[in-house]
Amino acid sequence: MLPQETIRRKRNGEVLTAEELARFIAGLTDGSVSEGQVAAFAMAVWFNGMAREETVALTLAMRDSGDVLDWSDIDRPVADKHSTGGVGDNVSLMLAPIAAACGLAVPMISGRGLGHTGGTLDKLEAIPGYTIMPSADRFRRTVREVGCAIIGQTADLAPADKRLYAIRDVTATVDSVPLITASILSKKLAAGLQSLVLDVKVGNGAFMADTGEAEALARSLVAVANGAGVTTAALITDMNQPLADAAGNAIEIANCIAFLKGGKAGTRLERIVLAFAAEMLVLSGLEQDIAAAEGRAAAALAGGAAAEVFGRMVQALGGPADLMERPEAYLVPAPVTRPVLARQSGYLAACDTRGVGLAVIELGGGRSRPDEGIDHRVGFDRLLPLGTKVEKGEEIGRVHASDAESAAHGVARLAGLYRIAPDAPLPSPDILTRISG
Questions:
Q1: pTM listed for this prediction
Q2: How many other CB atoms sit within 10 Å of the CB of residue 430?
Q3: Which runs of consecutive H residues, i.e. helices, occur in 113-237?
């Protein structure tokens, strides 16, 4: 069928067949379908949506546009996690080694920062020598010998997604649930996974600020992934404040190392990480119930096995062998640090979380253009959680900046992003909903 006929049928609200979608995506990949045709197709999907079977077929066609990894030579269940993006969200950095220490193989394909959210790859590039785009052999060897590897998407994995996303980005069709679903899952399915857990963020620091929208996306992702043969569940988690007590690239790596050494016990971050580790273990079949799985993950963390795995992964992918022992020798500090002080006494009642992410970018820790470099040193740490009682003049966070002027701006910016009230806010749950297949 001609590409324009596929577009016409979708424009008219008809259900496309798997064969039609496969042909269209093949043309998108090899360039025989024009940019204008791809844009028209994306807009037709934006207006008319897709049935579940269409989204499954689109996802599989995009997965099959490039290499699909095969882990049949690895004697471990192959599992992964994906987050829709947040601020201070460095969960993947700790989750992958915890899951690997518990017996899973985790080939984690991660991305860079998008909008106000931080990117796992940008964080890992703060580690000297760490290779985010290793050869296929090195990637496979690291997963096989260490248990996990966190890397970037290669040109050979789901190349159709790269072209389609670039066109969606400039045609106001990014926020289409079927297209978001296919974009996320095509890359994850190309990684050869057997199970997947999704972290769908909701709140003022997430792309989805509305709970209903977040649930709709989560249900679409779970239904399509299960329909494509990957056992999948999703947790909808709160993003109305930074997840870690740090936001910034090298700063979040330091936070990760402290976490793996037991320095973040009892925090919201630890609860979220262990919850996702438990989901991964149950979905993969290594444990039968969440409580036992969470206990196993907690033991891997407390006993140091997860920290050992992270250190071995870093070394296997080109980073320093003693990063865990001497992080200060490798994570370059910002030249200027300044405390951020509470402007009045009371309780930290609310946070403009998206503003925190944008403030990191303003310090130089993110990109305003795709071709920009970033300053891995800058950001915030010592961020206090909502509900904390503070006195006027007490530190509520700390700015890391490249110079005194940037530091002063960062101090004023962060202080203005928190609302202090006379009464403590009602606590909000870390995990709002679980959605399974």
A1: 0.90
A2: 14
A3: 120-124, 136-146, 159-169, 177-190, 211-227
Residue-wise pLDDT tens digits, 293-307: 999 999 999 999 999
Q: How many CA atoms lie within 13 A of 64 on its CB side?
A: 16
CB 372: neighbour CB atoms within 10 A?
10
What is the Cα–Cα distance from 179 to 15, expressed in whole angstroms? 15
Active-site positions?
A: 80-83, 120, 168, 183, 187-188
Strands 79-83 and 195-202 turn out to be: parallel
What integer pLDDT is reported at residue 370 of this predicted model? 56
User: From CA 225, how far away is CA 434, in angstroms rounded?
Assistant: 15
List phi, psi (to 5°) of 129. 85, -15
- Are 1 and 23 within 8 A, CB to CB? yes
Alpha-carbon distance of 206 to 200, in angstroms, equals 9
CB 390 within 8 A of CB 323: no
Phi/psi of residue 281, each to 5°? -70, -40
On whether the CB atoms of residues 239 and 247 are closer than 8 A, the answer is no
Instruction: Please report the beta strands in 203-358, taking only residues with DSSP state E, as ranges in sequence order.
Output: 231-238, 247-248, 336-341, 346-351
CA 312 to chain centre: 22
Domains located in the chain, CATH noted: 3-49 (1.20.970.10), 79-326 (3.40.1030.10), 333-421 (3.90.1170.30)
**Three-class secondary structure assignment of 276-298:** HHHHHHHHHCCCCCHHHHHHHHH
Cα–Cα dist 88/267, whole Å: 13
Dump pLDDT digits (tens) for 215-254: 999 999 999 999 888 999 999 999 999 999 999 999 999 9
Q: Which amino acid is at 220?
A: S
CA–CA separation, 36 vs 38, rounded Å? 5
Can you give 8-46 as a three-state secondary structure string? HHHHCCCCCCHHHHHHHHHHHHHCCCCHHHHHHHHHHHH
Q: Which two three-digit tokens encode residue 340?
A: 């951020």
Residue 419 has, within 13 A of its CA and on its CB side, a CA count of: 12
What is the distance between the alpha carbons of residues 295 and 277, in angstroms, rounded to a whole number? 10
| Cβ–Cβ under 8 Å, residues 150 and 120 | yes
Residue range 283-340, pLDDT digits in tens? 999 999 999 999 999 999 999 999 999 999 999 999 999 999 999 999 999 999 999 9
Q: Would you state the structure tokens that stand for residue 176, as one six-digit string?
A: 């289409």
Distance CA 198, CA 193 (A): 13
